[in-house]
Fold this protein.
Amino acid sequence: MELVSLDGLSSRLSVIKSFSDMSDQEEITALVHQLRPRLRNVIGTTIGKGGEGKTTVTANLAYVLAQAEKAQADQGKPAKPILYIELDSNGNGRLNFGVRGMPFDDDGLSFLDALTDDKDFQVVEGVRPYLDMVMSGRHNADIPTAVTKLHDKHGVSAYLLLAILLAQISHRYRWILLDFSPGDKMIQRLGLAACTHLLAPMKGSDNAVIEGLGTLAGLVRQVRRLNSEVAITSLVFLGYQRRNDEPTSQLTNLREKIGLLLDQGGIDRGVLIDAYIRDGETTANLARNHGMPAGEFAQAAAGILTDSVTGEPADRPRDENGRLADPQRAFDIATDYTNVAREVVQRIRQRNLEIQGADAA
């Protein structure tokens, strides 16, 4: 792992400061049209309520996508890294990859400075093979205040700061994954203005899940003037039981309930992907405690993970009572994430073709 500064980036603030709070929408639209073609590999994960597993889902999908790029490279085929960015101030994504407290962990200070003060944009390269990440943490909590000050002078263009930044680096990455909170509207607007494809993780079957999806749909509508292409691409269900390799009525009933709402809203039911993450909270928590995404944790549990430095077999993970982690359970969940990632990418690629077709027309 190495902390590097991505060079050659132009000033984000100079773009924002060319606008005022009285700028015409046509001026904003012209900037948005310049940005959008460069942001079609940006995937955002959020939902209208907390506790839905968005960080776990995003971190694991980033790992699966990075493993796919590594496999491409191992076969001598073109490959690009994946970039994972968490906008939340809790910085829990660092736990999933075991990098919290590392020498380069600055609690998001460099990201804050890059986003709001034109400082160098720093990423940690090689968190895993073909996986880079931006450090986040308590300093991310200062992003809304800085953006609010810019908004007071330069209007809604301030919400395009992240989009302008990512548009300059998107060519370096196969996919950029944004993990952002439902709790802060400023953070959500930055994320929604930057991403093209939205993943909405859903956990449980109560009405709060449905309400959270409705909240997200409302936010998408509100950000249209800053991002005409953003849309919910996939609903990712996690934490549901499976019997005889089939989902139980809890999930099938929820799918149908959401499907009816999608019909009413004129939204394609295809966002309800078939793959889902089975119930495995104990295993997921254990993986996070060991600083490993699901696929890596499964290898460690099976005793087939080797230390990247020494080449020796890594210690098999144990729970707080000293019991070895169940490798079959771990592999089941890792397989679920692989299947979800495959369907999500298929939908995104199809949607990108549709967007490109609309551009050509």
